[in-house]
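It is worth pausing here to work through a concrete case rather than discussing structure prediction in the abstract. The textbook approach is simple: state the sequence, then state the predicted structure, then interpret. We follow exactly that order.
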Amino acid sequence: MKKSSSKSSKKKLLSFIPKKKEEKKIQEKKESKPSLDNKINKEKKEKTIKKYELSNKKKEIRNIKENRPIDKPINPIKSEIQLKEEIQEKKINMKSSVEVLEKKEVIPKSEMSNNPLFLLSVRYNGLKNKAEMVFYDTILHSLKFVEDHTNHRPYFIVKKPINEILSFIDYYKNKELSFAKITSIDQIYLQDRLIFSSSQMTRVTVRTPADVPPIRDIFRSKNIETYESEIRYHLNWIFDTKIVPGLNYYSNNNEITLVTSRKNEIPVNKKEDDILKGFEKNKNYSSLIPEFLPFFTEHIPTDELLLASLDIEVENPPRQFPRADTARYPVICVSIFSNKKRSLILALEDKSGNSNERHSKLPDSAEIRLFSSEKELLNALNSLLINYPIIITFNGDDFDIQYLTNRMKNKNIRNSIFKYNGRNKTGTIENCIHIDLFKWYNNPAIKTYAYSGKYKKSSLGEIVSSLTNNKKIEVEGEISNLSLSDLIYYCWNDTKITLDLIIGDNYSTWKLMILLCRICHIPIDELVNKRVSSWLMYFLYYEHRSRKYLIPNSREIARVKGVNAQSEALSKNKKFQGAEVLEPKPGVHFEITVLDFASLYPSIISSRNLSYETINCGHTECRQNLIPGTSYYSCVKEIGIFSLLFGFLKDIRVKWFKILAKDSTHPFSSFYGVVEKSLKVLINAAYGVLGAEFFAFYCLAAAEATTSVGRFVIQKTVEKCNEMNIEVLYGDTDSVFVKSTSTDQIEDLITWSDKNLGISLEIDKIYRFIALSTRKKNYLGVLSNGNLDIKGLVGKKSNTPKFIQEAFNKVGMELQKIETQDDFKLYLKEIENIVKECYSRLDKSKSLEENPEGYTASELAFTIQMTKFTKEYSSKVQHVEAARKLEDHRRSQGNKNYQIQPGMFIQFIKTLNEPYPLELAEKGLGIDIESYKSHVHTTFNQILESLGIDFEGLRHKKVDLRKFF
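Step two, the predicted structure:
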């Protein structure tokens, strides 16, 4: 970020660079080696050098054009000579850089840098051909970029003895010039978990990460399989050095040393001490405690950091959404809001003569700077933003950063700090960590497990209103038409509520991010930009590497474990039978308890020892350990890595952090709540990735075995309930809905499950009443606390027209008033009237907005998100047809390049002829009333059917609801 001009700061940075004299000695020592291949003539050397120089020059030019770091090559002839020396003399250096790293000396604290450094990211620096750590200096509030000094180099593994590889390279060295980029060949020993055996393998080390793919491909073309050759270099470096993103370090003389802040404070009480001792006694978990404990207990910097949110507003013509890729319209307002409660707004002067009075709701701490030209504003932004090491945006990758990147190019502003990578679709800011919260909150795992599905749309407005007490300001019409004071306040409010999404609730979201970085060994910028499958892949890569396990190729897992399922899939795009969903018993049921198998699939993976290597392990003595409902068997000799790791995370969550998070007297209860949430995200995603074909450790057999045991668990539980005269009303995947008048019965069932199934059963919900329809995964109920709980019903879905949603909510409010069976008679008439009103007002809406008693255009509009460009849709889908009509209209109005972007929401009305975009809808438009009535039927029939009511009778006004009770 902001570069320090002090000499002391400069010295600290330079302390990581070896002195030139030492470098020179090392170089002279290397060059003093005699050439061991006198047969290479001078002409051949010169020809090869020229060829590589030309190739590297072209690559350099290409990198400059594409804004990539220039990868300075090492002389290929020198590497070839070194390789030949190794081949001819067979003197292979067996000491790897990894082993050297593991033998670091601990530096006394007195000799360390005074400033603790918080590791945020690790990157590959192409200019220096080294990994580079990105630290946050919590004293200077700036980023420190520290390059690797361990001589670590990129490599891949071959599952063959070293002599075979040396002979192979020697044979092809003159035909394959890429082999000149091999710098060393080492003999190593790794365990192949698919055969549970350690064997001699060969590590092939090359000069740069870019050298791995071509050499790997040559090996594979000669039927020599390579391993760990598709892991990106900076991740390899993290796994080998065991440097953990999200932890605090000191640095001194090129050494990075972990800061331990709470080592002597854990455990903090006897209860925690007993829990910890219980884990340490478990032979499988004892080795994991020292590895994971620092992740959960070490301090996470919050107020010590300087974070700021960024938002821009653009002046665009009416009904035209500004495109970030072209950035045609001026930036008229920018807001920066920091966690130090300071904010700065940059805006263009209002030259229309309107009042420039300060907005009454804008706090005095907000500083406003007005500019006479956009170029001045953008130049000021360039200068000001370097003061903030961490920038937070909402949808900044797709809009704000991309727009600023292209707008500054359009305005010929040099030295722009904004860059946009179109290939990765990420925006970066020079010397800064950029976090796009849209990608974080749009992550399905985060949405479901961290925030319990509290928001449906991943829009700033809905997320903020669902998770905080803040609100996004709603604007009718164009934002650029706001007065200057309203525009400034609107932009300022967006940055305020965006920042609160990461620092609110005592920085709970920030802490959650950092915990996941630690556990999964992933830089924070990659954590936000990638899905949970990538997090778990990095997590498993690291755990394999730390145990000296060979990381297998997914195609090898498929070859050894098979690709054909033993069960038949019951739904499309599935390869095997999934979860058990019991048939619901339709009707209204009172006093219902929902029992949930805590983390069912992770529990099965743990208790049944399911993992890619332990399923059908090949041991004769394991073949009797069959998986219910299949012919698969699991290993009884070796514990699988999935079973070990996710079993540990599950148990430490349930038996430690979940318990203590609820203990208000515990000093870290709030923080442990965040820890518990982070573990929940990971363990619930474990099964999903195991059964995902794109995942590196995908194993169909293990995934199918997991669901088979899940069905077995539900079936056995139903059988036990029948024995105990407990009525089962419904069951779905990992839960059963039961009607029981005795709490003792429930407790007995929970005890039975733990003892006989090895899986914890717990009370999840208690319903005052629940209305079940004949459809699975569709029900409505009122919980014991009076809250309405709706699952799968159309009226709750965000794409449903507003008038149906409002009617649905009214029905829900009436249902919430019901306490007993007799109460139904009091409230059913009102429910009847709500549904009848929908039909009545629709009949008055045949001609759009001509009858004031009918529905308005916005009330009739469907809202659906575009997932791709309109030209990429092959079939005629209604919202796509509306989007195409909108595009045609915009283009006819002069915006020839207008395009609906993926992620945008399309609102349309169903007319007698075709779907019509909401913003083009005109008064008098003919509405397809029957289609809307069909939607009303679909929505309310589900509810009324569960109440035992004939909806058709209600629709035609022939039925009195009360007669059904």
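Step three, interpretation. Residues 1-45, 51-112, 958-965 have pLDDT under 50 and may be disordered. The chain has five domains: 7-258, 262-297+552-571+601-721, 307-506, 582-598+724-792, 797-964.
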